[in-house]
Amino acid sequence: MSFAPPDVVSDRIWGIDPAATVNASLASQRPLGLLLLSQHVTGAVAALDSAVASLATLVGTSEPSLRLLLALLVGYPIAVFHRLAVSGAPSVVQNAFFFGCGVVLGVFTQGWDVCHALVCILVQYLVLVACGKTYVSPLFSVVFQLAYLLFGYWQTETEDYNFSWTLSHCVLTLRLIGIAFDYYDGQQDPETLSKEQKLNGLRRCPSFLELGGHALFPASFLVGPQFPMKRYKFLIRGDLKRIRDSEGYPLSPPLGVALGRLVLGLLYTGVYVVGSGYMPVDYAASDDLLNRPLWQRLCLLVVWAKVSVAKYLSCWLITEGACILSGLSFNGFEEQPDPKDPTKTITKAKWDGCRNIHVSVYETATEYQHMILCFNTNTNAWVANYIYKRMKFLNKKHVSHMVAMAFLAVWHGLNFSYYVTFFNEYIIISRERDFYDLLDRSPVYKYWFSKKWVRYSLKPLKVLWLWFGLSYAVIPFLLLSTDKWWRVYTSLYFHIHVVFLSYPFLKPSLKKWLQVPDEQDSKKKD
């Protein structure tokens, strides 16, 4: 026999169910618990915001810039945590982990504007499911994703650069368009595809979490680099763990290489922070510069351009290190000389799959083409694979090149200055290629350039000419305001435009002076 407490007996006598009373009491406590949790979260967010604002004031930078830098640095602990605790989990867990981390970093840097990214990811997923195997998918993706990005540019446009959700959304736009093309390519006959299309083609439609994890991969969704879904799948499947190095040990991302990119990125960050204190982005249009003699203006513009561009290098190097640490950057093997025995070679893993800047080439370049090959390389490769090479049906290389440049200009924004910048790039690159083609066929050039003293003497001059031209070409891109860059160009007498636009008229005289044989003078038409 069991006995109930007196109060329970009393409740039963009066028709009150004790269990119901307890449940009601618990239910009444739930809103209070949620309220307390909400207050704690709000307090933590407020404390974080206050700490970031104080730190930004302390180091003398803007809060959005500091948030971006902190978000890039967080990519390193995220990569380590994934390797140690998440990499062995099912793919759905890993995709959710990367997707969730990306959303959190998006909220930290953009606030609730990260919802723009989520909307575009959802729309892209629905398009892939509905018509991903047809040409409608890549066509719709280009139109919709680019239109959404342009809407964002129109909504947030100012006369100067500002941090907004479009900063990361331009990276997301290319990534989502690329997935649409890759899934479409995966359904085609392999015999009709290029090498890159075969390599990146997707046979199966990605799940929503998979799409989100790839699109918002924490180490790359804010500032790049671009990488295909196939590379992301390689990481999620854990294929890296099954690869052995030359000594038979399991391959592991090199911590030293990753930290080396981080240190180099922080050095360029320091160059930008210190340099921009003396030469802010508006310095090129300042009276202090424009009232100087022409030779001083040209030299100071070179320094100003290098300082201004350093911020891009710093971001790409920091993100590259995080990608290396995660294992995403693995890019196969290559043969290298054995340091112990130069007569032998050893097989070493390459970790440059997410490299967006080749620093050594950038700092020693002597030709404009070198900059195309070393600067923002993953974006350039994306445009080459998904835009330029898909224009081959036009059978005109220069037209394909112009279409690619136009796409890049539109992708950057609606500001007229972007179109001027890419026009500058087009005329400089095309004229340089044509000029070097003349040199390659010139016996005069070959004779003199075969002498070491001539080559060594010309190199510093070529470096100066390169940076005089580059600093001139990027002025509209960095200043944005038409009034500002027009004032600068006027003070420089449009000298780079004069040189390169007059090249077709000077070409006959150059050919005669360089003694290019007439029978080799004709070039293949595009």
Describe the protein's architecture and organization.
This protein is mainly alpha-helical and 526 residues long. Strand 1 (333-337) and strand 2 (345-349) form a beta hairpin. It has 3 domains: 63-237, no CATH class; 263-353, no CATH class; 358-526, no CATH class. 69% of the residues lie in helices and 2% in strands. It has a two-stranded antiparallel ribbon. The radius of gyration is 29 Å and the shape is globular. The protein contains 24 helices and 2 strands. It has helices at residues 6-13, 18-59, 63-86, 91-110, 115-131, 136-156, 166-185, 195-200, 208-215, 229-237, 255-278, 287-290, 294-326, 359-364, 368-374, 377-388, 397-412, 416-440, 443-449, 452-473, 475-479, 482-491, 495-501, 503-514, and strands at 333-337, 345-349. InterPro entries: LPLAT_7/PORCN-like (IPR049941), MBOAT_fam (IPR004299). Its EC number is 2.3.1.23, 2.3.1.n6. Belongs to the membrane-bound acyltransferase family.
